[in-house]
Amino acid sequence: MNQRPADTVAFSMAAPLAGPAPEVAVSNDMVKRGLWVAPVLIAVCGLVWGADGAWSCAYAIAIVLVNFALASGIVAVTARISLQLMMASILLGYLVRLGLIFLAVYLVKDADWISLPALGATIIFTHLGLLVWELKYVAISLAYPGLKPKSTQPNTHSIARQ
Amino acid sequence: MEAIVRLIAATAPVQTPDEIKAANAAIGAGFAYGLAAIGPGIGIGFVVGKAIEAMARQPEAAGMVRTTMFLGIAFTEALALIGFVVFILLGL
Q1: B44 → closest Cβ in A94, A143, A159
Q2: Which of A61, A60, A65 is nearest to A115 (CA)?
Q3: CATH hierarchy code of domain B43-92
């Protein structure tokens, strides 16, 4: 086992994570790509489900992108405070974000312009599609996802030692 | 006893087959969303727990671990979203 000796690691769960937040870079990449493909998705949904489908598709894309941004924001902010808070906020944030998605859909479910099949299909397709697209870059680069490594800079991520 | 039965019959709404079908769909949708949210909840907890363990063992790899953790969370959450979509299509 390649473990550090216990006396050399003064790790604390209450310690913050120093360095830039990679999840924000991931989220920004996915939002950018989502905005690029949004017109295509909206056009496809418009062809299949009509104008209602196009509006619903746009709304679903907005839900997915805001969900990604919110998730990364929660991780980035709480990681600067402590790992304990990060874990708690990720788990609680999961419930809160599901609740927000439910609320966002519930508020418009009876609207004239909503098409629930288009909304549901777009949520799943956009969420999974953007993730797979991003995963490709992460797997290839093994560095900051979606962004080319700028140089041979050493990894600056570290856990602040107390 | 007969009076109670008559009272229940008087107060209970008459349900048509369509209403019964809609009620069953709503119950099914509720179960679909609820059950679909449990698994990802456990999965996200597992992913984050292991990621923190990894960061504790190798602090210099924290950036990569956080990236992988975030993607893992998002993939796991996709299962809950699929359950949610089933929910909105069935009974919202």
Answers
A1: A94
A2: A60
A3: 1.20.20.10
